[in-house]
Amino acid sequence: MLSIKRFDPTKTYMFPNGTLATPEAIRASFPAVDYFTHILEINGDVVQAVMSLKAVRGIHKVDESKTEDEAIADLELLFNTPAPIVVGPEERTAAALEFSNLMMLDDVQANTKDPLLLVQDDPYAKLLKQNFDRGLWSTQMLEKAHKKGVLSGAQLLDITVK
Fold it and tell me: What is the pTM of this model?
């Protein structure tokens, strides 16, 4: 998780190349930190970016009526919120065709020696898990895959139980 901190002239971090990011080193590379409010993007102890708070507020449209502390909190939340999953029409079509092909298979008899193979061991199960996680396949569709013998019971549970 990234943390967004106001530049503090008393704290030392590390740059990505492993050198110390002392306040003096930051000032040497970013002299404006003493004149304008700057924020640091911190990952653990590593300074990944030094940015003008006003510029970042403008880029991300953070309300100007908010205090600097409120704006920094908003930016931290924004930087740590995963981007929404966008599923394109090609991916939807591919998932539908995969299910259509699956439905043409004959049902298999339940195997009492159902292997404990998990999803990470089976490339096709990985694909079905991805389809499920992205909302392209439902639990009922995965149950059909199990009924057709494409997924083991363990794989079905591995995909659907979170």
Answer: 0.58
